[in-house]
Amino acid sequence: MKETTDANEAALLQDARKRLETFAKERGNLIPILQMVQEKLAYLPSPALAMVAEYLGMTASDVYGVATFYNQFRFQPPGRNPIKVCLGTACYVKGGDIILENFERKLKIREGDTTPDREFSVERVACVGCCALAPVAVAGETLHGHMQPSKVEGLVLRIRMETQKKEKEADEKSNSD
Ligand code: FES
């Protein structure tokens, strides 16, 4: 699984390298270039930062320094089940920050991080447009409204079980092919 992930990532990095050539070698293009790379890889791994630095004639630490200034960039791969906790005003006043803390505690990671098995990542987002359901969390593509701290554990467990079920079904299918 890890090898497949690495191979995919190498291919995506190669793709990003080709796209890089379409940008003029100007430092003013740094942000659009980083956005393009993140669009391809879903995050900015060190080899990508080094590649961008070399292209623009900058040091990797300069590129990293600029990228960390903007919270739109992430430096860890998102989990297969990304959890987004809304901290827009309506959700915040209804305890969105406590929901976020509960996910962090349950998954033993901080906001912006990914679990070591890459199953989950947690991040805060601005209003997702469903304020009537505040506080809201989005797990994968599914929106969970009226979240409560006590629902966090059950939700994580359910996602884990669904993931295991899907993996088992995929294994059975590949064994029967
Ligand atoms: S503030 Fe959370 S959905 Fe609007």
CATH architecture of the largest domain: 3-Layer(aba) Sandwich
The name of the CATH superfamily of the largest domain reads Glutaredoxin
Beta-strand segment tally: 4
Q: Can you list the strand order of the major beta sheet? A: 2-1-3-4
- Spell the H/E element sequence: HHHHEHHEEEH
Question: Would you tell me the structural class of the helices and strands?
Answer: alpha+beta
Name every ligand kind in the structure: FE2/S2 (inorganic) cluster
CA(first)-CA(last) distance: 19 Å
As residue ranges, the low-confidence spans are none
- Total domain modules: 2
> Which strand-content bin applies to the residues?
5-15%
Per DSSP, the total helix count is 7
Largest sheet: 4 strands, mixed
Remind me, CATH topology of the largest domain?
Glutaredoxin
CATH class of the largest domain: Alpha Beta
The dominant shape is globular
